[in-house]
Write a structure and sequence with these properties.
The complex is a heterodimer of chains A (about 140) and B (about 200). Chain A is mostly helical and about 140 residues long. In chain A, about 65% of the residues lie in helices and about 0% in strands. Chain A contains six helices and no strands. The chains are: A mainly alpha (about 140), B mainly alpha (about 200).
Chain lengths: ~140, ~200
């Protein structure tokens, strides 16, 4: 029960921060990818500078299967980047965007859900050996 | 959201994002990953049940222990190969991670929604916008194309996120920070694809 509440608190904090740094704004995302405003990339890079020592100090993450670079990494990231630009949001930012009152985001959320369900179907049918990577 | 909204400066956003990632890690012993939560919430079957059966299989347990120990010492699994399915299942248990249920993932996603709502309310920007943003309308018009692009963009990002094993909360916010090669690669590719797409779609308008 405590963990359930804690997850809710993390979600609220995450959504709050994402909204405040502008990652839920399609306008800011467009400016970021057009390289006309580097505030968000700078935010992500600075976050990396803070988190790299934190994660490297954690030795309890034995996950060697995630070290494989496959065609899925490249194709998936390409589709993801293109989709993020087109609708201005990604699976992470669409929820706080809807929460802030931007209702067209519901259509993007529907797209995200369909995309994930599509992937589940494809994975189950054609990539069954890799399904284990997603157990969590 | 209006472009005139006063966003946090990069340093404040960085500290806040890092704090959220650390908080998530402290609770779950996992790096944060939102597309994984979507996948779990949308998955009808219960994959967690399988992991309970490995407790009785001594060989699997030993193989997973060996793999985990080797990983701690920097050994990487040979390119193109993956450990046995049972060993993969055993690894998270060996890391002594708390079990996350469907409800945990659902609560995280609900929290994200409420967090955006809270921020907009405190910033005096909470309002119901029914029409797409003016920038989106400027590029794609006010007709069916505009809505189709919204849906298709969401579909591509959702599908791509799972195919690449994570949305930007995974590779860009967490994976690259763990100096994990696929995450660094995924971050680079997604930003390159985004920049190219943005210049193709919006560059001349």
């Amino acid at each position: 029960m405590h963990r359930l509440l804690a997850m809710g608190v993390v979600g609220v904090c995450f959504g709050f921060v994402l909204h405040r740094i502008g990652l839920v704004s399609a306008h800011e995302i467009e400016r970021m990818f057009l390289l006309s405003d580097l505030r968000i990339p700078l935010t992500l890079i600075t976050t990396a500078a803070i988190l790299i020592p934190f994660y490297l100090s954690r030795a309890d993450q034995p996950d060697p299967i995630r070290m494989l670079i496959t065609w899925r990494t490249v194709v998936g990231a390409t589709l993801f980047g293109a989709g993020w630009v087109l609708c201005g949001v990604c699976p992470l930012t669409v929820l706080p965007q809807i929460g802030s009152g931007y209702l067209p985001g519901l259509l993007a959320l529907a797209g995200v859900c369909v995309g994930i369900l599509l992937h589940q179907g494809i994975q189950k049918r054609w990539l069954p050996g890799e399904s284990v990577l997603y157990r969590d | 959201m209006s472009a005139s909204f006063q966003y946090w400066p990069f340093w404040a956003g960085s500290v806040a994002l890092a704090a959220v990632a650390m908080l998530y890690y402290a609770i779950t012993k996992r790096p944060i990953g939102i597309s994984k939560s979507y996948d779990r919430v949308l998955r009808s079957r219960r994959p967690d049940c399988d992991s309970l059966r490995m407790e009785d299989d001594r060989s699997v347990r030993e193989a997973a222990l060996l793999l985990a120990t080797q990983a701690d010492f920097g050994w990487q699994f040979p390119s193109g190969q993956t450990p046995d399915k049972e060993v993969c299942i055993a690894l998270p248990k060996l890391a002594k991670r708390p079990h996350l249920r469907w409800s945990h993932h659902a609560m995280l996603l609900t929290g994200l929604l409420l967090g955006g709502m809270l921020s907009a309310a405190l910033g005096g920007r909470l309002s119901a916008d029914v029409l797409p943003a003016k920038e989106h309308v400027h590029h794609f018009g006010n007709g069916a194309l505009s809505w189709l692009v919204l849906f298709t963009g969401g579909l591509l990002s959702g599908f791509g996120a799972r195919l690449a094993k994570g949305s930007e909360s995974g590779p860009a916010l967490v994976g690259a920070h763990r100096v994990c090669r696929p995450s660094v690669m995924a971050s680079a590719v997604l930003f390159a694809a985004g920049i190219i797409t943005a210049h193709l779609c919006f560059g001349r308008t």
